[in-house]
Structure to design on (366 residues):
């Protein structure tokens, strides 16, 4: 079967076609999943000048781009006849920006209604989790559905809007065991980048400057706090880390110093160390407590090389299987929505051809 995935929860207009080697609505051992196309139309340049996403602008851009993205997704997957070749539609129903979500959901409902196709509403975070099931376009997934002994899985979902530790005992069964009490880790990267004058999105900019830092040219020898590192729960806090950067810059300026490139590199480096350190330590503590078999990393911040490297090392030492999504599925995309939609479709026998099956849910957790 072939599934169309649609994602418009934030500032990316994305559509993808996923192929599953099965005609039946049953999980069979040995089934393979393949992404046939994955199109992402980014609005980064538009929002960059505002230092963050402007919801009404994002919705307007989705409306402008969605038809073109749809055509491209079908063309690249070589789908010539939508009605004959596409079996179901999966769309992000939340969480996300209300005006942005409405564009994708309305487009999906219209298609579902015209072509009488099943419509599956997908939680955006569940989409991120399932990005781990994917391989680059045209390559079959390494997982044979249901053939791997992966559960229980610990999910570390790190993005611009979320920092969650979700225990997954089986397909569709989640328990949030930890989350941020204030800013999300991606948000901290973005806000700190803005303080350093590095632009938006901040994650890649900070990582690039951190890579330029050389210990021998260290001027500040600064050590940022590792917030909640030793707390007895699995929660996180990132607003203090951003404030530590703010105060440091304020003090440096008050002392009459200039913020040179070397200083920016050093702050970016130490910020990245502090932000990822807490993530790795708390995740591994949770992995031990819940005796998980696997760890899945996902969300935009999962593109961070330091985080990938350190989780890889820590899981190898602890004997936990470690998975991270291919780079193209770390930030928002529709292939992850299509694959999460597929697993939901298998689970929920009630999903039928229905144009009112999906409610927008901007605030729903799991
Ligand atoms: O998942 P995503 O595309 O959108 C949300 O659902 O929020 O995540 C975007 C976030 C942004 O905060 C961005 O700065 C961060 O992911 N990000 C990174 C990196 N690449 C993207 N953070 C750290 N290091 C990176 N290399
Ligand atoms: Zn996301």
């Amino acid at each position: 079967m072939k599934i169309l995935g649609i994602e418009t929860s934030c500032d990316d207009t994305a559509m993808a076609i996923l192929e599953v080697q099965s005609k039946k609505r049953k999980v069979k051992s040995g089934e393979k999943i393949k992404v046939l196309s994955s199109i992402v139309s980014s609005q980064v340049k538009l929002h960059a000048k505002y230092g963050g996403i402007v919801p009404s602008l994002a919705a307007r851009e989705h409306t402008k781009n969605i038809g073109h993205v749809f055509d491209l997704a079908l063309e690249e997957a070589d789908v010539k006849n939508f009605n004959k070749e596409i079996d179901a539609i999966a769309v992000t129903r939340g969480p996300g920006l209300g005006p942005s979500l409405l564009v994708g959901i309305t487009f999906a409902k219209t298609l579902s209604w015209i072509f009488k196709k099943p419509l599956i509403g997908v939680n955006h975070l569940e989409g991120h989790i399932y990005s781990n099931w994917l391989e680059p376009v045209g390559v079959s997934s390494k997982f044979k559905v249901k053939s791997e002994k992966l559960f229980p899985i610990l999910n570390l979902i790190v993005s611009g809007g979320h920092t969650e530790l979700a225990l997954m005992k089986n397909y569709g069964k989640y328990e949030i065991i930890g989350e941020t009490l204030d800013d999300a880790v991606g948000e901290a990267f973005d806000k700190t980048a803005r303080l350093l004058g590095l632009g938006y999105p901040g994650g890649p900019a900070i990582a690039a400057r951190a890579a330029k830092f050389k210990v021998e040219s260290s001027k500040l020898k600064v050590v940022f706090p590792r917030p909640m590192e030793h707390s007895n729960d699995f929660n996180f806090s990132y607003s203090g880390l951003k404030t530590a950067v703010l105060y440091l810059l304020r003090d440096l300026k008050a002392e009459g110093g200039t913020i040179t490139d070397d200083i920016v590199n050093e702050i970016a480096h130490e910020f990245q160390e502090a932000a990822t350190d807490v993530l790795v330590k708390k995740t591994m503590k949770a992995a031990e407590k819940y005796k998980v078999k696997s760890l899945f990393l996902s969300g935009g911040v999962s593109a961070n090389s330091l985080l990938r490297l350190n989780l890889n090392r820590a899981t190898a030492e602890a004997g936990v299987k470690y998975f991270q999504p291919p780079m193209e599925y770390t930030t928002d995309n529709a292939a992850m929505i299509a694959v999460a939609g597929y697993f939901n479709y298998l689970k929920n026998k009630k999903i039928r051809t229905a144009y009112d099956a999906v409610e927008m849910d901007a605030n729903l957790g799991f």
The first strand starts at residue 2 and ends at 7. The mean pLDDT is 89.
